[in-house]
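Weekly puzzle thread! Below is a chain. First person to post its structure in token form gets bragging rights.
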Amino acid sequence: MLRSHLVQALVGLSTCEKHGEKEKLFCEDDHRILCHSCSLAPEHKDHHILPLEEVAATGKEKLLETQKCLKRKEERLQEKLDHLVRAEVNCKTYFFDYQHILFSEYEILEWFVEEEKDLQFNLLREQFINNMVKYDRRKVKLSQELQSVQSLLLDVEMHVEETPSEMVQGMKGTLDKSEKLLLHEEPEPEAVSEDWRTYVVTGRTQMLMTFFRDITLDPDTAHIHLVVSKDLKSVKYTSVPQDQSNNKDRFVHSLTVLGAQTFTSGRHYWEVEVGENTQWEVGICEESISRKCLRPPSPEEVRTISGCKRQDGFYLCSSRDGYHQRPPIPKVGIFLHYEWGHLGFYNAMDRTLLFHFPKKDFQKPMRPFFSLCVPDKESPTRSLIICPRSDQ
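Winning reply:
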């Protein structure tokens, strides 16, 4: 009954050249395999000697645990490398998208600042090149570390498949290398600039102010929970309904009011103070926009941007794009070039670009658009204010 087990236990065991016995023991002090007679020699008298099978079993457990740790590290590194590659792709996408935006902006301003265009493109390209260099360096570091982990994994997997005597003699170096690699702190990636949206263009403020318009609100279009000031320059939410007469021009479902001006041609610029409102929307809309419909207006009817303040920060969104986190904006500038089908939104504090709608011909008369939301309990009611002209 025991013969098959004894034969299997002896497979792969080496034979002592001195005593002709199977080497079934292992001296942990000298880190060598012994036969029974060798273990009785005086030089091993006080050494810690264990059965080879027991040492091999313990060693295999360590190797298998190390294998798991290395695989987890491999997965983390691969995930970081994948994330880096995706970020690199996004960087390239942003570069080409905003290169187009920048070109379009300069088309409008070329009769003001033609000589500055090449400089701005060079700055953008330099930022792109610097980002690419940082991405390449980070990819090389991660790839090298990933290769080291994969090489050690191959060593571990090789030792796991070896005979006990081969495994216990060869695994120490692999375990030492694995321990150092697993304890090695992964470096933080270099900071990469992703601020593609701010372009300071000489002469932009003067150009925009050339087309400044005195915009006023049309109280006949205001939702019944909106109060329009007497000077027609500001609007705020109220919980008390105002005039409830059946006015065909009044918005019924959205907290919206339109500007009194109608645009069918020309270039026009105005600014709106949005202040501390938790949610707002400004821009332009078709004069024929539905005032009674429950559904949101179509992209053809409105071209707007909106701001939303949440616990984790401030978000900016356009009527054709998703939300983007950014610092709060106290004042928004709006520039309309009707003949070119151009609409741009600016931070009115420094006249830097926030968002630019792709050129699309206007088919109908357009009007300024203003919208608020119902304030929550923690946020007081604030106004949207149409700003007076300021060249600062």
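Puzzle host: Confirmed. Bonus trivia for everyone else. Residues 312 and 325 are 9 Å apart (CA to CA).
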